[in-house]
């Protein structure tokens, strides 16, 4: 909560103050680009916060409480903003992104790959809009934005899985890290959570038995991107290799990838189809992912119904995007439980208290306008 609002406050400052800078070396076009990049980041931050702290759109059509919308720079006057609805937060996200796109550059306009993949671009804003529309079940607009991204020649599927940390055409927006960045301090970077102790990590988050079982024999997404090690509890588990550097924590953190946009387009097409043959393009979109994974491809005859094809697309999302932070929202937007057995499973069902985070107690203590999330 604090980290997101700290970044949002900085974005608000840039948006408000960059246009007022008087400097002949800072052109109007550059000011507009800087403001647009700040709006993209603010949109991304609010999107993540809404996913963490509010129930999904599917629960009540977005009328449920989300997070406070703070859009102006702090001037010294303390205010106590209320929680906005999810619809209001999503509307602001869309507004920021659509206003940003005209002033953003394309990936091709950046000569440095780390800037093309690590800074806000037209493609990144369109891809985030595609994700927003997917989460809101606006299938036609999700399709529209996904097609716009994939029409840009800067974004293509990689032929293998060596693209992680490489700033390739697979990256649409990726947080850039190095051995001297803050990822090396405090709790470390993603590798600290996802690598075992022998590799310098803590071994906190291994593959679950259910996730392991989702991969077919010979699936390169498992074979190429995993290793076995000892977990935090001393047990032996399979761990992801998407973030291998737990010593320096120099791995980049992918936020939006071409693969996700391909799967977004496939899902949006399928949700609008009335028959499997009418969703042939969706099948054609997921087949290259199957080929890359070393698996057989699909035909329309592979699916008994549109629902069967949709389930396959969601399964491909699960395996392609594992450990990249998207599975939870995929489960919630399809009204599936986050946990099916064990302690807390009765509250981890769709609409359950424990499917979202609590509003931090420190925030409730200082802001009388905030309403808490139930169940905590």
Structure in words:
By secondary structure, this protein is mainly α. Helix content is 44%, strand content 5%. The protein has helices spanning 2-17, 28-53, 57-60, 86-100, 113-118, 122-135, 139-150, 190-194, 209-214, 220-223, 258-272, 280-292, 306-320, 327-333, 361-366, and strands spanning 171-175, 226-230, 236-240, 253-257. It has a two-stranded antiparallel sheet. A two-stranded antiparallel ribbon has the order 2-3. The radius of gyration is 21 Å and the shape is globular. The mean pLDDT is 96.
Briefly characterize the structure.
It contains 15 helices and four strands. It has 376 residues and is mainly α.
In terms of topology, how is this protein built?
Blueprint: H1 2-17, H2 28-53, H3 57-60, H4 86-100, H5 113-118, H6 122-135, H7 139-150, E1 171-175, H8 190-194, H9 209-214, H10 220-223, E2 226-230, E3 236-240, E4 253-257, H11 258-272, H12 280-292, H13 306-320, H14 327-333, H15 361-366
Antiparallel strand pairs: 1-4, 2-3
Helix pairs in contact: 1-2, 2-4, 4-6, 6-7, 6-11, 7-11, 11-12, 11-13
């Amino acid at each position: 909560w604090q980290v997101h609002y700290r970044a949002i406050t900085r974005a608000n400052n840039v948006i408000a103050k960059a246009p007022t800078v008087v400097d002949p070396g800072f052109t109007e076009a550059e000011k507009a680009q800087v403001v647009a990049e700040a709006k993209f980041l603010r949109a991304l931050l609010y999107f993540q916060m809404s996913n963490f702290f509010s129930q999904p759109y599917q629960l009540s059509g977005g009328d449920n409480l989300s997070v406070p919308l703070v859009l102006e720079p702090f001037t010294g006057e303390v205010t106590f903003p209320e929680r906005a609805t999810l619809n209001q937060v999503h509307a602001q996200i869309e507004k920021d992104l659509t206003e940003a796109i005209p002033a953003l550059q394309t990936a091709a306009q950046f000569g440095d790959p780390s800037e093309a993949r690590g800074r806000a671009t037209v493609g990144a804003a369109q891809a985030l809009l595609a994700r927003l529309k997917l989460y809101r079940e606006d299938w036609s607009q999700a399709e529209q934005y996904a097609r716009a991204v994939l029409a840009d020649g800067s974004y293509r599927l990689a032929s293998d899985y060596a693209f992680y940390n490489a700033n390739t055409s697979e990256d649409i927006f990726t947080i850039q890290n190095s051995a001297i960045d803050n990822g090396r301090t405090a709790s470390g970077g993603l590798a600290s959570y996802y690598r075992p102790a022998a590799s310098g990590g803590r071994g906190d988050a291994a593959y679950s038995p259910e996730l392991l079982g989702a991969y077919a024999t010979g699936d390169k997404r498992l074979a190429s991107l995993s290793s076995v090690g000892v977990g935090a509890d001393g047990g032996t588990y399979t761990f992801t290799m998407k973030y291998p550097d737990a010593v320096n924590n120099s791995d980049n953190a992918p936020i939006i990838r071409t693969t996700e946009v391909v799967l977004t387009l496939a899902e949006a097409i399928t949700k609008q189809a009335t028959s499997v043959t009418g969703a042939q393009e969706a099948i054609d979109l997921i087949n290259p992912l199957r080929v890359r994974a070393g698996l057989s491809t699909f035909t329309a005859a592979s699916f008994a119904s549109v629902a069967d094809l949709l389930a396959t697309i969601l399964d491909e999302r699960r395996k392609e995007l594992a450990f990249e932070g998207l599975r939870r929202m995929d489960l919630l937007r399809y009204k599936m439980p986050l946990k099916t057995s064990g302690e807390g499973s009765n509250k981890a069902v769709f609409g359950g208290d424990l499917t979202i985070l609590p509003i931090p107690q420190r925030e409730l203590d200082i802001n009388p306008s905030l309403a808490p999330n139930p169940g905590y």
